[in-house]
Amino acid sequence: MSTTRREIAAPHWLVQLLRSTPVPIPWNMVARAVLALAVPLAVGYALGDIGVGALISTGALPTVLSESAGPYRYRARRLGGATAAAGLGYFAGLITGGIPAASIPVVVGVAAVSALISAAGSNASVAGLQMFVFCVLGTGQHVTGLRVEVLLGLFCVGAAWSLLVALATWTFRATSPERGAVAHVYVELAAMLSAADEATSRVARHQLTTAMNTAYDRLLTARSWLSGRDATYRQLLNLLSASTPAVEASVAMVNAGRHAPDDVIDHFVATSAAVLANQDLPEPPEAPEDADPVLAALYAGLARIGKGDNRKRREIQPWHKRLRGWAGSLVSGPLTWFAALRLTLCVAIAEVVALLVPFERSYWITLTVGIVLKPDFGSVFGRAVLRGIGTVIGVGIGAAVLAAGGEGWLLVLLIAVFAGGVAVGKVRNYGILSAFVTPLIILQMDLASTGSWDIVLARLVDTVLGCAIVLLFGYLLWPGSRRPQVGGRLADSLDSLVKYVDKGLVLAPSGEARLERSRARRRAYRALADLRTAFQQVVVEPSAAGRQAVAWWPVIAGLERVADAVTEVGVTLGRGAPAPADADIALLTAALTELAAAVREERDPAEMPMPDNEQLSGVVDQIGAAFDAVRGPDLVERAPLRLVRRFLPYHRRA
């Protein structure tokens, strides 16, 4: 890599680290967080004991921290599991608090368990984090002087209240999340087709992929014992499936650098509004007589949307199969064990350091270590830095509250503001989340005692020590933490692209064949979207991992263009364009297979023959550009980590 490239690396990772995700403010989540956390305080203050209100509010915190968008039944499982795990961890912390010989082994053990169960999925990961967080918080509650059963009872009251707030609208808004997800797909289609330039349309295409993935995930995980709702889920899923030709034709239009007619864009907007309002779909516009194959396919796709597909719903996987899959992931995924070992070691160090720090309630050190090092949440370096920055800001807010002598209704108002800030920070930036959750927990956990500047100083020192432990033992000294671990995932994405090329460039005369082609396209785009997310998590690091992610970025963009070019050719099949010869398709798949092998084996890809076919010229050009990107001058920065090949089963599973 050139000197110039190295000089701009640091500003680049810093900008990426501080960048806020440009998503709308989730006002519904903000409102629920305010109600769940502030109402118990208000009631407690009105009844003359704000300390009890704070303890009840603490029980509502797991639900607020675990809240996410999605179907109600999915959210009920997620929030219920996280709250139950938090209660279990809180109880373990309560019964061992004040006895270091008992609390330290319990906290370290809970940390190890929380890391291992993260491999079971997103919901298990969130539950594991809450179990650890509230186990640590529970160890500091002995100073309140209340009995364990009283503290646990107040926690359970708060937990029940927060679950009620989170799920109260289920009875009359049961299918709204799924309906909104499907409607959002048509909004993103309209945005992509109306983009003014290639860069804007590329971003819009990424957002369309995310919207499609979200809609399918929500509909395929939604289940109901009420036949009416189940029929609605099937109707929305069939509608989304029938939109596949329109999606493919839209991608083909954008890839060809063409603008869609205004009536097409208006129809997508109207369709989105109709789906959201549960009304009849609008009539599709008529195709012009002189429409070329791609434009004709787009109008045909619009007409197909209203017809729907009769698609079978995916069966729910039995719990014992899910448990077996989780156990298999632990056996075949050494990186999970490495992450658990790193977390356990750093938590043990934090517990020892907490004994030596002359501050009351120094559990904040362990809390910081666990939250930052929690597996599957992105870059350790980035989270440690953002946690430190956010906590400094949060402590400053806490200091301002203490300096102003905040009490009574002013305190309730501040808790409401912090609760809303937590809901916003969760979707915007981890640093924003830390800046609001720090004063929130400070007030909740210390409200029963007399607030003072000592608390502010203690929280600041504890957080700095926790971040220092993470950066030193969990990042700088931990083997392989500063080396890139993304090469294996790039090769796996290439494998998905190979399957799409094999399915997407042949005629699909039957419904089953079209379904297979659609599934191959979705898997390829989903794999590329997941790959982009993984690289964005690593790019915030100033180490070789971050530089490698920056250097690999043109390759990822090249693979996305290959997928778009394949989609464009596939749209024209059956509309006057013949299917490419099997031999030509075999040359393309062989080239992409060689590219994947070169990435895995850390070498330059070999020269591969390409088909001399005008119909496939766009695909050939994009594959050639991907080969050039892999052979580029920054290849030394993109050499995949040696451990990738050792842990390849884990990467393939991921």
TrEMBL record:
It is found in: Cell membrane. It comes from the Bacteria. Belongs to the YccS/YhfK family. It holds the Pfam family FUSC_2. The keyword tRNA-binding does not apply. It is a multi-pass membrane protein. It comes from Amycolatopsis roodepoortensis. This is Membrane protein YccC. Residues 52-89 form the Peptidase A2 domain. Keywords: Cell membrane, Membrane, Transmembrane, Transmembrane helix. The chain crosses the membrane at residues 79-102, 108-138, 150-172, 335-359, 380-402, 408-425, 432-450, 456-478.
